[in-house]
Q: What sequence folds into this?
RNA sequence: GCGCCAGUAGCUCAGUUGGAUAGAGCAGCAGCCUUCUAAGCUGCGGGUCAUGGGUUCGAGUCCCGUCUGGCGUGCCA
């Protein structure tokens, strides 16, 4: 917000002085306060193009910039930085603007309503969601909320792999558990089958509902029946896990439905028309190596069935047909080998493969008492998303997942997530919010509140800590835009911690409500109320609750 | 072997897209509650940014090599 004002002002001055400015320059908050409130590298970046030494250019610019009274001091520093020391008025005005915008503050039209498809989680419907899915859910959902807030038109979609091999194995696993319940000896449970407890539960449910009748069907009908039963149960389980986590999807796209609509044949024919398929060893291959993949990929196996890739590609093409101009897939760590073939297909079919953007989330390790929690999917020993959420709570889980950048491994410390002190960043941030609410409540009780806030009240805010808080608040709009464009929601978590830290420090140093001066009290209440607003906005974007007392 | 990701304080991690003297929190030590929530605050110490080169006014950030760790490299999904 303030950055934008300075940026605009610099451009105005550049134009006035007749300087070219093709290259973009930055306006930043320098890490050393001696270098001012804000600092710009404009003269350094643009010096060459204007055939001027950076310092000489900066000098000319400062002369012109000084005509604006918003600055307390302007100076050249280092190799040609322009350092801005702002007059408090500028902060005071910014605070008033923030206050007036309320919960709309930070919203923008930056995204120009571009249609963006966010596909995430998309777990196999063959079991409960695991913690990587939880990370994907928290990440994707937060990115969605932020993109929407800054003016994109995003959609959340979950692709359901309800056809193919894994689902067959699921049905077979269920049948074995059913037979077990009927008293049959089934011997060793097959290695590749699903070993999880949930399959037993499904069997018990189905057995209670239908008992022996299941086995009176033909083999083929029974398998279909088991598939349908298991899928609807497990999908419902996944949907409800996600909902408990605060994540809902606009679309659940079924692979089975896509196949029924004939898209598989369509895609195969497109690829064939593009002359990039061939037959070898009774299988049909995609010549993806022509488009940058490591090896060619099978489209149709020698048994006549189709590989996962074909309907998935078809699904991606429907996204384009539905008018999305950017397709973002959020994948787990074990799928990066899959990307080149998708991109290859886009190129083969003459689509711009830059439309397809893949974000990889790295793995999640749970730590308990300093030890890594060992999990084995094969043995059915996994910590599920539900386990985690019921253990540490939605807020903690979401915050921890969002707080790390996507392509870094995430070590999830269970004790830390459960702790209720300043070790735990979630509580640290929520406590700051609750503290504000509590102060305001007390101020109301003590009749210290102004009848209404007025702009001139902000004139009392001159302490460095107060201006620093406003500066932090003023960062939000630009921050949200860069989070959306860089797909880096973890920055919002960092921001919240910094804001909370500012607030706690301020609280410890100054009496907010009840200063000797009534004007100062009013000003400070206005300030912390704006902080409260920003907390509410950010908690909302991260899907966290905003407790008013703790 | 090849490919992708990562390597920053004892630990967990930031680092504003190449800017000035690399920052937080935890852990350690020393302090602060008759006053708006101590789930908080203040102070101290802590670094060869894995490593070797390169690019330029300037590199934790970009390029190349090496080392270490994770993952991938199915006619699985």
A:
């Amino acid at each position: 917000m303030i950055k934008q004002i300075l940026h605009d002002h610099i451009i105005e001055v550049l134009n006035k002085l007749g300087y070219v400015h093709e290259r973009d320059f930055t306006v930043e908050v320098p890490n050393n306060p001696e270098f001012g409130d804000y600092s710009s590298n404009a003269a350094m970046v643009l010096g060459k193009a204007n055939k001027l030494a950076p310092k000489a250019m900066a000098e000319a610019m400062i002369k012109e910039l000084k005509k604006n009274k918003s600055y307390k001091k302007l100076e050249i520093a280092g190799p040609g930085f322009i350092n801005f020391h702002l007059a408090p008025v500028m902060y005071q005005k910014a605070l008033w603007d923030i206050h007036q915008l309320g919960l709309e503050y930070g919203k923008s039209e930056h995204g120009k309503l571009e249609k963006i498809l966010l596909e995430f989680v998309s777990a196999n419907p063959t079991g409960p969601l695991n913690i990587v899915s939880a990370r994907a859910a928290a990440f994707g959902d937060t990115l969605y909320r932020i993109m929407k807030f800054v003016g994109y038109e995003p959609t959340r979609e979950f692709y359901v792999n309800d056809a193919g091999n894994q689902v067959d194995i699921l049905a077979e696993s269920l049948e074995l558990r059913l037979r077990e319940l009927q008293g049959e000896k089934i011997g060793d449970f097959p290695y590749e089958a699903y070993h999880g407890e949930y399959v037993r539960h499904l069997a018990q449910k189905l057995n209670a509902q239908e008992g022996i009748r299941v086995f009176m069907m033909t083999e083929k009908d029974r398998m279909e029946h088991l598939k349908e039963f298991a899928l609807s149960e497990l999908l419902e389980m996944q949907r409800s896990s996600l909902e408990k986590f605060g994540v809902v999807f606009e679309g659940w796209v079924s692979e089975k439905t896509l196949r029924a609509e004939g898209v598989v044949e369509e895609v195969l024919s497109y690829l064939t028309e593009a002359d990039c398929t061939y037959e070898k060893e009774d299988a049909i291959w995609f010549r993806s190596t022509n488009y940058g993949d490591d090896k060619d990929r099978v489209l149709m196996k020698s048994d006549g069935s189709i590989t996962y890739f074909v309907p998935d590609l078809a699904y991606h093409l429907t996204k384009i047909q539905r008018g999305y101009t950017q397709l973002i897939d959020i994948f787990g760590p074990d799928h990066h080998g899959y990307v080149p073939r998708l991109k290859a297909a886009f190129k083969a079919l003459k689509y711009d493969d830059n439309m397809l953007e893949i974000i990889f989330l790295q793995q999640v390790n749970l730590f308990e008492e300093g030890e890594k929690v060992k999990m084995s999917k094969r043995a059915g020993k996994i910590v599920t998303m539900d386990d985690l959420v019921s253990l540490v709570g939605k807020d903690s889980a979401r915050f921890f997942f969002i707080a790390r950048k996507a392509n870094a491994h995430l070590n999830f410390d269970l004790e830390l997530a459960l702790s209720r002190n300043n070790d735990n960043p979630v509580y640290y941030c929520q406590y700051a919010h609750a503290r504000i609410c509590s102060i305001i409540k007390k101020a109301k009780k003590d009749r210290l509140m102004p009848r209404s806030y007025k702009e001139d009240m902000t004139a009392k805010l001159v302490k460095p800590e107060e201006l620093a808080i406003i500066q932090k608040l003023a960062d939000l709009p630009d921050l949200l835009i860069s989070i959306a464009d860089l797909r880096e929601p973890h920055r919002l978590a960092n921001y919240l911690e910094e804001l909370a830290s500012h607030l706690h420090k301020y609280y410890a140093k100054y009496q907010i409500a009840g200063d000797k001066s009534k004007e100062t009290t009013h000003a400070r209440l206005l300030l912390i109320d704006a902080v409260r607003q920003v907390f509410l906005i950010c908690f909302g974007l991260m899907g966290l609750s905003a407790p008013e007392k703790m």
Observations:
- The first helix of chain A runs from residue 2 to 17.
- The two ends of chain A are 32 Å apart (CA to CA).
